[in-house]
Amino acid sequence: MKAGLAELLARRLRLRMAPAELLRALAGSTELDTGVLVCLAGRWAGGSALIGWHPVRQVTDVRLIGEPAAPSGDPAGDAMGGGWFGWWGYSGLSWFGYFDRLLRRDPDGHWWLESTAGDGPDQLAELAGTVERLGSLPPPPAQPPRISGLAGTVRHRHLAAVERAITAIRAGQLYQVNVCARFSARLAGPPVELFAAGLRKWAPDYAAFLRTPERTVVSFSPELFLHRDGEQVRTAPIKGTRRRLGGTGNTGDQAGADRLADSLAASDLASSVKDRAENVMIVDLVRNDLGAVAVTGSVEVPALNAVEQHPGLVHLVSTVQARLRPDAGWPALLAATFPPGSVTGAPKSSALTAIADLEHTPRGPYCGAVGWVDADRRRATLAVGIRTFWSE
Description:
Elements: E1 9-12, H1 19-27, E2 37-42, E3 49-53, E4 57-59, E5 83-88, E6 94-99, E7 101-105, E8 111-115, H2 121-136, E9 146-152, H3 155-170, E10 176-177, E11 183-188, H4 191-202, E12 206-211, E13 216-221, E14 224-229, E15 232-236, E16 238-243, H5 252-270, H6 273-291, E17 300-310, E18 313-323, H7 330-337, E19 345-346, H8 348-358, E20 369-374, E21 379-384, E22 388-391
Antiparallel strand pairs: 1-8, 2-3, 2-12, 3-7, 4-6, 5-6, 5-20, 7-8, 9-11, 10-19, 12-13, 13-22, 14-15, 14-21, 15-18, 16-18, 17-18, 20-21
């Protein structure tokens, strides 16, 4: 779908508001075609928040991501102007849309309207005015999300699957496997309210809202699956977890006690032989995955078993990076690394077989990937699809 070089135009908006609030203002708009609507907030694109609506192309095969030409010009320095946004499910389903107009909130809190749609300055100014007016209207009444009727994987069945996994490990069939449980419930209120509430409460590194034609995906992931910038690629698998109490809103003596509990949890995790070994296994797996598409000798581990605090939990996080071979395009990179190693196990092929046997419900978007890809510029950030909800 090459359409020639598209000029990137950007206009700074007279808006300073949180991503969740601007998303809520746009979600019900009748003036903009926001039936398909996406928002990324957290550490995406250098710390930017991104909102897109009305994609010009939609695909359900991740291998088709790519093609629209890289824009010329870069008036806002870090401007994106367009790209593919979507999700790739562990079970094979996927949806990505190409957006040629984006709202980008820079790290200083300023919103920009960016376009590679061929808009002239007057058209861009008119659209900017519409967005500014929608953002300045009184916010719609908040509808706190309410979840009821929780059902899903039965406890005894899940424990039996774990016991079977342990038996397989003892028999030498694999070293570790990630056995998951899935749950369903009734959600009162639109999914955008769930996203807004979660973003305000947890502020995760990789929050994503993706309202697509057939389902809405809401993700509060802390984990980086792939970050690509040209020939450089990086991943940061999480393996090893403890509960933390800090950030729960307690004050006074209780807040001090929470911080002490968090410090003890972090120390316990850092010294855990079991958790560190699990992390190292996944690091070796990821090194092998990237090695299939990387320049020989370029795979490195700049951080191993680093202790990081995330909303509600403390994790062991490692970083693996590599330099891609010139002949390794997007299909090769994605085929070599998906699904993420941290949600499968080691060896990956044996873990995939075990998961198919032990889990009785398809994972769907869960444990896949969410994020954005600018294939022409060879840039992307994809998060692991954990702490993820979806509605159909």
